[in-house]
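The authors assume throughout that readers already know how a fold can be written as discrete tokens. A single example would do more here than another paragraph of explanation. An entry of this sort, consisting of the sequence and the corresponding backbone structure tokens, reads as follows:
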Amino acid sequence: MDIKPETPWDGTPDISARIVVAISRVSSVLRAGMWEFATAENLNPTQAEILQLLKDRSTGVRLSWLAAQLSVSPASASDSVTALVAKGLVRKARAEDDGRASALWLTGQGKAMVEKMMSALGFADDAAAALDAEVKDQLLVGLFKLIAQLQKSERFPALRACLSCRFFEANVNPGSAAPHHCALVKAPLPIAFLRIDCAEHQATDPATERRNWEAFA
């Protein structure tokens, strides 16, 4: 005899599973937009991602960092970088902090390509901008909390986020609209202004970063 479900919703996946599916679908749409842009500009998707990762990085980055961000082998990242250097989009030179190592920067042509890419992916920014202000704040906080949980698995790549920056001072004004403080600009830091990727970021020590993320989670 067939057993009828107790409610019409018994087969619904739990909310955590649906959150992951939603993020995955949004990621797929963004990835498709990236691939469409890359194809039109004679780039492959990895090359386009590298250009995006080098955006606003004045000090240059190491190849090993790029590989970790892309979740690919250093050899694979190196192949893509070599192609970008040949196209005149990326410059490779001695690292400023270690003359024995190399670092990567965008060229002027590379910066122009990234601006063009951001314009092509503007549909996503437009969609987020159309949300109610309160929803945007809640979504940003929720994403930070999700990242904080993922950090515990040690599967999430390093970010230039506020919580991993030496200028970030956590919970200086608990309970207020601006509970944190940024020592760089010497001003209270509202949660709505927390950054995932900040050009002025300077890494803090691992123990402090871990405490910041754990407190946020």
